[in-house]
Amino acid sequence: MSAIFRPEGQQFRATEHAGGPWSPDMLQGSATTALMTREVERLATESGFVVRRLTFDLWRPAGLRAFRAVSELLRDGRKAKTLQVRLMDGETEIGRCTALLTAPSGESPTDPFASPMALDKAPEAGSPPPAFAQKWSRYFQNVSVRLIEGALEKPGPAAAWMRLDAALVEGEPNTPLLQAVQAADFASGVAQIVDMRDWTFINPEISLYFFRPPESEWILIRAATRVGANGAGLTTATLSDLKGPFAEVMQAMSFERREAAQAQAS
After folding, report:
1. To 10 degrees, what angle do helices 176-184 and 29-47 make?
2. Distance between CA atoms of residues 240 and 211, nearest Å
3. Sorting pLDDT into bands at 50, 70 and 90, what band is 196?
4. DSSP label of 174
5. How far apart are CA 261 and CA 111, in angstroms?
6. Structure confidence at residue 4 (pLDDT)
7. What band does 2 get if pLDDT is binned at 50, 70 and 90?
8. Hey, how many other C-beta atoms are within 10 angstroms of the C-beta on 150?
9. From CA 192, how far away is CA 255, in angstroms rounded?
10. Taking Cα atoms as reference points, which of 103, 38, 104, 48 lies closest to residue 71?
11. What is the set of domains in the chain, with CATH numbers?
12. Which segments of the chain does DSSP mark as H helices, in order?
């Protein structure tokens, strides 16, 4: 079975399965965020707290090399803790995760204004994307996708179930939290609104807000993108598992015409 990373002492070496959409030799964003989440989840489990918010700043692209996660407790409260995890490529920081953890209270109030939750189609009722779309990146070829609304190859809002089939780290199972985070990074792709032959778009950050822990390996992304001024956009998404919604996602987007990007590079 393929793996996205292989352990090397205190580091994790990216395999060829970690390649992203812009270059097969550059790390996929989903791999970056999920590897940092692995460290957050380990620390949350040790403390008995639950993950409530994950904010990722993706600072630099990285090749398929060995990385290490460096963690720091920024706030150690009785009811809330704040962690920081930095992903290091040698001495260069390529990304950072700030995580909010809260102590479980054991009981939640009833929301008198909540509408009955409508169940979405199950993954087996969805359809796979076209073969060419599944080849957008080497990493994405390890992700099972079942569309229930819209289309990956056409602009507009869409909804798709996703599951990473390869192990994130060799020899370890993918937890529901890892599945959720790696899927969330695809929200802007699921809800892309431009012709990618004419435009590039990146999300230099992504934030997830959890109102309950995810409980299944299949994650449903229901996403939409809006565009404003100066190349700015915003992708929002709801994440669901087989029981229903559990988190909201926000991604700050930056769009650029390919001609402009090529002119700056030359």
Report:
1. 150
2. 11
3. low
4. P
5. 48
6. 96
7. confident
8. 18
9. 11
10. 38
11. 3-103+126-265 (2.40.160.210)
12. 29-47, 131-134, 176-184, 187-190, 258-265
Q: What pTM was estimated for this model as a whole?
A: 0.89
CA 36 to chain centre: 11
Tokens of 232: 């700015």
Q: Is the dihedral of CA 170, 183, 135, 199 positive or negative?
A: negative
Contact 5, 17 (CB under 8 A): no
| Residue 209: predicted pLDDT | 98
User: For residue 179, which amino acid is it?
Assistant: Q
Bridge partner list, 67: 12
- Alpha-carbon torsion 149, 152, 154, 155, what sign? positive
Give the closest residue to 40 by CA, choosing from 69, 11, 14, 68. Answer: 69
- pLDDT recorded at residue 72: 96
Q: Tell me, what's the pLDDT at 190?
A: 77
Say which residues have a Cβ less than 8 Å from residue 108's Cβ, sequence separation at least 6.
Answer: none
Tokens 């090749």, residue located: 63
DSSP structure string for 87-139: EEETTEEEEEEEEEEE---S-----TTPPPPPPPPPGGGSBPPPHHHHTS-TT
Question: Residue 265: what pLDDT?
Answer: 55
pLDDT digits (tens, 9 = 90+) for 44-103: 999 999 999 999 999 888 889 999 999 999 999 999 999 999 999 999 999 999 999 999
Cα gap 171→200, rounded to integer Å: 35
User: Measuring CA to CA, which residue among 176, 149, 179, 152 is closest to residue 163?
Assistant: 179
Q: What pLDDT, on a 0 to 100 scale, did the predictor assign at position 60? A: 87
Q: By C-alpha distance, which of 106, 54, 46 is closest to 83? A: 54
